[in-house]
Design goal:
mainly alpha, 2 helices
């Protein structure tokens, strides 16, 4: 009997959700780290940066990937 090799595959949606949730929390905290009243733009920028950092931490992209 031929043995079938099984490959592990990540659960992409839960992993991506975890990245987003963690990024939102980190971004929120960073927005208020040195500023008690961040602007809407600063707030959004910190959350966006933190979410993307989490995604890049857990997912590999091709070298020429530019995000578009």
């Amino acid at each position: 009997m031929e043995r079938m090799e099984k490959q592990m595959k990540p659960k992409f949606i839960p992993l991506l959700e975890q990245c987003i949730e963690t990024g939102i929390s980190l971004g929120y905290n960073r927005a208020f780290k040195h500023n008690d009243s961040p602007t809407k733009e600063e707030f959004e920028q910190e959350i966006h940066r933190a979410v993307m950092n989490e995604i890049y931490e857990w997912f590999d992209f091709p070298e020429n990937y530019d995000g578009n």
